Each structure stands twice: as structure tokens, then as C-alpha cells.
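Is this the right way to post C-alpha cells for a design question? Let me know if I should format differently. Anyway, here goes:
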């Protein structure tokens, strides 16, 4: 009896993921306010009302999208730092990790830039807390590499590096975008 439940659970998770992917694309193209639940359902090949089987509201879709990606960044950043043998390796791994994220999630970056203010306060607070933790992870690594630098200056460097890397969705991509971004970020933080 557990087999159908497992298959059903997997199918439900796949539909939820398809909705989030569709939401990222639609929100990036049109903005959160201009996308309806019916639009989301149609993009994921389900009816608008069926969206409610996965999310309570369009606001819940946006929250799942932005909180989820912020959790992924925080966990992923912690994992790459934990796996690094040295602080220099940790910084290189963080840069590579963030470039991979930016190149894989350009729509989510656009949504974050434009629609974070559309999130309800509890979800926006969660996103901001996760983002601060991610920034502080970078600042911690940079602080060990540059112990004489002021923490505030290191935080500015981390934010500037994110700006550089996250600008990728707004610019043309070439075959060597990844390499260019990694070299520029390394140079900026070195």
C-alpha cells in the first residue's frame, strides 16, 4: 500500500517543483503583480484551481520560491566552506558556487530584485535573515583571509561581488561567462 502513496507523493512534489519553475519564469517576465494563479497553472499544465493543492495563494508561491532559494544558498554556502581545506579554497568554492547559482537561476534573481517587496512580512524577514547569514559566511571567510581589514569593508566587498555575479541575468552571456565571472570575483576579493 505504501507504493501508491510514494508514487503519488513524488508526482505531487514534481508538480509543485514545476509550479515553482513556472512561477520563476512568469514572475521574471511579467512581475509578481501581473501574474495570476490561472497563469501559473497553465504554465505548469494544471488548472488554476489545482494550484491550491500545492499553495494557499500566489503569495505562498512567491514565498516558497524566494525562501527556498535563500535556504539553498545558505545551506550550499555552508557546505562548500565546510568541505574546503583552506580559507583560500573556501573563497574559491564560494565564488564558484555563487556563479553556478546565478547562471542556473537567472529568473529567480530577477524576481528577487523586483518582487521581494511583494512578500508578506514574515516571509520577507525569513529571506532577509537567510541572506544576511549567507553574506556573513562570506565575510567570515574573507576576514580570515584579510584579518587587518574592517568587517564593514569586507561586507561591502561581499555585496559588491554578489552584484557583479548576479548581474549576469541582465547581461548577454557568452560561452566563457562562467570563467569571466569567477576571475573577476576572485580579483575583486583578492
Amino acid at each position: 500500500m505504501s507504493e501508491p502513496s510514494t508514487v503519488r507523493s513524488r508526482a505531487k512534489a514534481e508538480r509543485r517543483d514545476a509550479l515553482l519553475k513556472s512561477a520563476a519564469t512568469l514572475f521574471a517576465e511579467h512581475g509578481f503583480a501581473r501574474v495570476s494563479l490561472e497563469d501559473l497553472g497553465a504554465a505548469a499544465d494544471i488548472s488554476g484551481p489545482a494550484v491550491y493543492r500545492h499553495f494557499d495563494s500566489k503569495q505562498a508561491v512567491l514565498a516558497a520560491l524566494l525562501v527556498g532559494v535563500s535556504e539553498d544558498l545558505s545551506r550550499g554556502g555552508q557546505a562548500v566552506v565546510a568541505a574546503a581545506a583552506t580559507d583560500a579554497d573556501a573563497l574559491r568554492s564560494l565564488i564558484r558556487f555563487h556563479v553556478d547559482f546565478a547562471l542556473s537561476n537567472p529568473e529567480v534573481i530577477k524576481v528577487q530584485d523586483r518582487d521581494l517587496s511583494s512578500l508578506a512580512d514574515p516571509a520577507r524577514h525569513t529571506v532577509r535573515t537567510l541572506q544576511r547569514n549567507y553574506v556573513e559566511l562570506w565575510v567570515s571567510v574573507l576576514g580570515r583571509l584579510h584579518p587587518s581589514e574592517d568587517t564593514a569593508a569586507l561586507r561591502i566587498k561581499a555585496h559588491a561581488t554578489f552584484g557583479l555575479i548576479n548581474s549576469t541575468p541582465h547581461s548577454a552571456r557568452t560561452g566563457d561567462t562562467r570563467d569571466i565571472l569567477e576571475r573577476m570575483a576572485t580579483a575583486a576579493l583578492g
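Format looks fine. Someone answered above. Worth noting: The chain has a mean pLDDT of 92. The first helix runs from residue 2 to 30.
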